[in-house]
User: Fold this.
Amino acid sequence: MLRRFRTSPLLWLIWSVLLLAYVTLLPPPSSFTFWAFATAGVAATIAQMVHSYRKATWEQETIFEWNERLVALGAIFDLNDRQDVFEVLDAQQWEDVLVALEKMPSGSRSLRQAILHTHPSALQ
Assistant:
């Protein structure tokens, strides 16, 4: 869940430098420096929004692909909350789970068992 709220450290650095410089200089609203800070602040905000949108889109596409692979494998979704399970593991951990599912016999591919076999701490 907290992964959703992470943003690029570079954007945090830009915002921090802008804020520190603005508080230190305190330019009057009619000066060029004030408008340069305002423009840089708007640009940093737009960059953060674009970054967040792209990251969220990528995450949704990845979750959709994992779900499609699970359905194609015929995996049994034997977990309480199907939506949260995609957010618990990262990409490499999901690859481990999918490989473990592929190794299981066709009729008994349990998602819970695959996660417990590869990353038991994820379900606690």
Summary: The mean pLDDT is 83. Residues 74-124 form one domain.
